[in-house]
Each structure stands twice: as C-alpha cells, then as structure tokens.
Amino acid sequence: MSAPVSLRGVSQAFAGSRGGRLALDGVDLEVAAGEFVCVVGPSGCGKSTMLDLLAGHTRPARGDVSVAGAGVRGPGPDRVMVFQEHALFPWLSVRDNVAFGLKNAGVPLEERDATVATWLRKVGLADAADLHPHQLSGGMRQRAALARAFAMRPQVLLMDEPFSALDAPSRDRLHVELQELWAETGVTIVFVTHNVREAVALGDRVIVLSSGPGRIIGDVPVTLHRPRVVESERVVALSATVRRLLDAADQLGISAPREGGDSYVTI
Ligand SMILES: Nc1ncnc2c1ncn2[C@@H]1O[C@H](COP(=O)(O)OP(=O)(O)OP(=O)(O)O)[C@@H](O)[C@H]1O
C-alpha cells in the first residue's frame, strides 16, 4: 500500500518572457515507502512543481522521477493528489464525490459502496453522505477530499497545502486525523506547505527549499512522539530551527547550494 519516491538531479524550467526560467534546480530527494515527508519553502520556490512531477502531470527538464522504482511517465492510480480547494465536484453528493475515482477505475458497485461507506465513516462524514459540497464547512470539504483520496488506496499521497484555507481549530483536528489515517494505511505522503509548524507537526522529515529556483537547503528529521499538534512546545522549538534555515537562506541570497556545501544543512 505504499511505495518509495525518488527525485534524482531533477530540474524543471518553464518558458518565461525572457526565455526559459528554472523553477527547480538539481533536486535530489529519496522518500522511503510509508514515510511522511513535508516540503517547505517560500512562495514560488517550486513546491507545487515538485508535486506535479511526482503526479506525472509534467515531465522534468532534467533528471529522473520515480515511484516504486519505476520512472514516472504520467498520472496513475498509485498516486493521488489532494489540493487546497476546488477538489470536489459541486454537482455531486459527498458520497458520489468519494465514489468517483472508484467508479472510473471500474470497481463494482457493491465493493464501491462498501469502500465509500468505510471512508466516510473514518473521516466522520457518514451523516453527510447525501449533502453537496456547498452545504459543507471547509473542514468537511477537506475531509471528503481525504476520503476520496484514501478510498483509491494510493501508494503515494501528494498533498498541496490541503489545510491552508481552514480555520485553526479545523486545521488542528485534521492534522491529528491525517496522522491517524497515515498510521493506519501506511501510505507514503509528500505534503507541501509554507507553514513551518504544520510541516514539523506532520512530517517524519521536513525538506527545506530555497527561494526559486528551488534547491534543497535542509533535511530535518522530526522524531517527536505522535500525534503532534502545532502548538506543542517541541513542535514550536523545532519549527524555529527550520525557520532559521529559511531566514538564513533568504539573507544570504542562497540560490545554489549543493549537498556537502556550506549552505546544505542536515540536522
Ligand atoms: N505552468 C507554468 N508555466 C510557467 N511558469 C510556471 C508554471 N508552473 C509554475 N511556474 C513557475 O515556477 C515557479 C515555481 O512555482 P510553484 O507553483 O511550483 O511554486 P510554489 O513553491 O508551489 O509556490 P506557492 O507556495 O506560492 O504555491 C514560479 O516562478 C512559477 O511562476
């Protein structure tokens, strides 16, 4: 139910007004099967670009992207993306939203219904199955998006700031619930956020990217007991360390660190 993820020497460029513009430069990242890795970095540093590459929505300009040892050539059911918003189809009920991917994958009706019911129960939406997205709170919408993602039994879950539009209490609850679902399923998670505390609260490791073009400037293991919450003293303390890495990179104008060089930090 989980797969390792690897980016080796990955660079990505987009056409700009004055020729090609690098969004990611020489990114090397290994994520073990079942690991929960968070990626932080300033706006525009290439976090979503990295997820798009893993999802197979785009191909790298240079380097290799692989999942479970096989090169990523396009989207696949082994990798599911969860976005900040606009994730649900407004014209479908919660139940049908969660069933959507399963139906497309040809899962028979009976099995589909059972899977949908299971995941709606796990995310606390059993009573909201017949509602439509506009009838849900932001937190409920993201719960439905999580149910839809987990119901597909992906090997890798790619999460792009999924909780950043939520109020703090909803976000805090979802942090705990996501950690529980992750522990239960063993799925590999790559979670992108610009919120350092969120990254430390959720991740086994926090990967720190420099401002664009994104390069890895830090790889911070988090060994604190789970489930963690953003307000915990230890999360706050470790977040300050990650914050300092980001600030130092900013002040030094770091844009070209290399592993082993002065600007690459492993804690
Ligand atoms: N399809 C595209 N075409 C052209 N430029 C792009 C495209 N996608 C991303 N970029 C550029 O690549 C850089 C990285 O963008 P990306 O969205 O990956 O950053 P990010 O770290 O996710 O930012 P944010 O935190 O603001 O969401 C930016 O300069 C962005 O403008």
From TrEMBL:
InterPro entries: AAA+_ATPase, ABC_transporter-like_ATP-bd, ABC_transporter-like_CS, ABC_transporter_ATP-bind, P-loop_NTPase. The keyword Membrane does not apply. One of its GO terms (molecular function) is ATP binding. Coiled coil: none annotated. Keywords: ATP-binding, Hydrolase, Nucleotide-binding, Transport. The keyword Cytoplasm does not apply. CDD domains: ABC_NrtD_SsuB_transporters. This is ABC transporter ATP-binding protein. Gene3D superfamilies: P-loop containing nucleotide triphosphate hydrolases. Residues 5-236 form the ABC transporter domain.
